[in-house]
Amino acid sequence: MAALGALLAVAAPATVHAAPVxxxxxxxxxxxxxxxxxxxxxSFTPGALGGGGPVTVMLExxxxxxxxxxxxxxxxxxxxxxxxxxxxxxxxxxxxxAIRKLGGTVRSQVQSAYNGIKVSIxxxxxxxxxxxxxxxxxxxxxxxxxxxxxxxPYLGADRVWEDHGFTGEGVxxxxxxxxxxxxxxxx
Length: 187
Known about the structure:
Elements: H1 2-11, E1 54-61, H2 66-73, H3 78-101, E2 105-110, E3 116-122, E4 135-140, H4 151-155, H5 157-164
Antiparallel strand pairs: 1-3, 1-4, 2-3
């Protein structure tokens, strides 16, 4: 702490030069490009999504998933759940030829917590999926990139590293959990 105080005392006399302050434009909206006015098209694709190339989407289908049906009706038997899942899967299977015809590939199908089909398809062909019978919506599947920029300071780990020298070096951590299949393709 004394070293930090000495560092601040040495740094205090430094001269600070301020950058010139830009003049405010007459209209704050002048910094934006103007576009032609008119109704917004439902086929609008943001520029970041424009162009071709593969994309993975999730088709949300009509018909509640098993969990939602159970929430509304009350506890379902194992056979009722199995039958409902089979019914949802049969409806999904009927869409597979149309998805392939559009150039898509079915990656997975889910019925329990969500009624949907995960599809890989060229970005330019993805809008055609929304027109398929029974499709309520088409959602982009985003890739989640975990980071620790927020959590490390929040937990105070950086202070522990600095104050006590505990960095985790040489420590082995084992996670014993049967709830995740780390070999699964979508994990």
